[in-house]
Write a structure and sequence with these properties.
Layout: E1 10-13, E2 16-19, H1 30-34, E3 37-45, E4 48-49, H2 52-65, H3 74-88, E5 93-101, E6 116-123, H4 132-135, E7 137-141, H5 163-174, E8 179-183, E9 189-192, E10 196-201, E11 204-208, H6 217-228, E12 233-236, E13 248-253, E14 257-264, E15 267-268, H7 273-286
Parallel strand pairs: 7-8, 7-14, 11-12
Antiparallel strand pairs: 1-2, 1-6, 3-4, 3-5, 5-6, 8-9, 10-11, 10-13, 13-14, 14-15
Helix pairs in contact: 2-3
Length: 288
């Protein structure tokens, strides 16, 4: 497959559809220098983006948290996503909405006079973790920790917050792993580099509190599904030593969907019945 900069198709950019290869920005774009960018990852199933409005609302909220109010309403963002999918002829696709501070009168940390720009791209994308989605992903344990909410706007899906995630995933892949699990600044289990994490022990589901990590839309969906099944879900602080007693584990995210985990560092997990059930039920829900 060609690189992401060399494809056919259309990208919605600043209110209009442009040719894929022409969707470019200036080298002095503020976001390239100071990470003033927020984004959403979404999946379209059978012509419908799952939880589309929630994603658009979160994109606007992320912009607000970065002092970067988006110039498009939720309704306008929804229309732009629909136009992008239609222009490319996609009914099943990954959708990336992105907003950033562009090039303008300011070229420094402050950028109030620079325009806030937005684009939406879509492409066909399979399993984020490849065949690990069936047999269970192998995770490294990252050396980097998710920072304190006093240092970052952790509720924003902001590009700059993924820097340590990229480094952690690269280190994991170099060890033959699919991803890495990160601890938070206090030493509690946090998340993977781009997905939330769940554990099962004796029929009870445990997942980290979203008090220092992004409270993923897929995470919220899965918690609701589990509770509807009558399964106890404990959102709490999980210590590292507890992983030894956990029996099952999975990741959740728009890209990851629900991916079982077979190993984290020296800890092993089974791809058990609940993992398989909730994965199958999620697959049915997003295509309903």
């Amino acid at each position: 497959m060609a690189g992401y900069d060399d494809r056919d198709g259309k990208i919605w950019m600043d209110g209009k559809l442009v040719d894929w290869r022409d969707a470019n920005v200036h080298i002095l774009t503020h976001a390239m220098h100071y990470a003033s960018s927020v984004f959403e990852g979404e999946r379209c199933y059978n012509g419908k983006i799952f939880k589309s409005v929630q994603h658009s609302e979160r994109l606007r909220k992320s912009g607000e948290l970065l002092d970067m109010p988006l110039p498009y309403s939720v309704a306008e963002i929804e229309a732009a996503k629909e136009a992008t999918l239609k222009a490319n002829g996609f009914t099943n696709a990954y959708v990336r909405a992105l907003a950033w501070r562009g090039a303008g009168e300011d070229m420094g940390v402050a950028a109030k006079r620079n325009p806030i720009r937005m684009a939406i791209a879509a492409w066909e994308w399979g399993n984020y973790y490849g065949d690990a989605k069936m047999k269970g992903a192998k995770l490294d344990i990252a050396k980097w920790k998710r920072p304190s909410p006093e240092t970052i706007p952790h509720a924003a899906k902001a590009a700059g917050l993924y820097m340590i995630c990229t480094m952690s995933k690269h280190a994991a892949e170099a060890k033959g792993c699919s991803d890495a699990m990160m601890f938070d600044y206090r030493g509690y289990v946090a998340e993977a580099t781009g997905a939330n994490i769940f554990f099962v022990r004796d029929g009870v589901v445990h997942t980290p509190l979203a008090d220092g990590i992004l409270n993923g839309i897929t995470r919220q969906t899965v918690i609701g599904m589990l509770k509807a099944k009558g399964i106890e879900v404990q959102e709490r602080r999980i210590e590292a030593h507890e992983l030894e007693a956990m029996q099952q584990c999975w990741l959740t995210g728009t890209a990851a969907e629900i991916t079982p985990v077979g190993q984290i560092g020296d800890y092993n997990f089974e791809v058990g019945q609940l993992t398989r059930e909730i994965s199958a039920e999620y697959e049915a829900l997003v295509r309903a």
